[in-house]
Write the structure tokens for this entry.
Amino acid sequence: MRSFGFATLAVAGFLGMTQVASAADMRLPTKAPMMVAAHSWTGLYIGAHIGAGWGTSGWVDGPPLLTNLGSHGTSGIVGGGQVGFNWQTGALVLGVEAEGSWGNLSGNHIDLFASNLQTNVRNIYAISGRAGWAMNQVLLFAKAGGAWATFDYVDTFGAGILNGASSGTRSGYLLGLGAEYAFNRNWSAKAEYNYTPFTSQPENPLG
């Protein structure tokens, strides 16, 4: 994951210190040691990301029976963008980040009534707080916040006979861990894993 950051990396140049030579004291010119400022993570950033997502979609028939219709895995590619702000004091880095991912995480299974139940997750959005520990250009961080996703549900039978279809936005929470490396004052890359259960309503909206 690459992000464009406004944090700065200041580098001091060499300072040449030339000494006057004499017959009694012949010494070579010396240089002051190179001084490199520690990387600062403070600032606004914007960037893009790409990755993979996977999960489990459980189906329950609507009332009055509430029959368990089984579950299936969903997986696919996701990509999108993020914007955030970091504030660093000492080695502690605190921040907030908003991100949006677009993709096609899909899966299906056949239930006990021989219906083909399909789930598709199209959009995932999140707003999170971040807390991390900086070791110069390396940042280890954790994040937590709220998440929202758009779900499509389709129930077909036999040769594609439509029993029902529905779409809806579900909410939940996000917990994440990651590591980020700053190549310079403007560019960094990070890898992270986010756990996002969506608990606002039952998985099956067709009952």
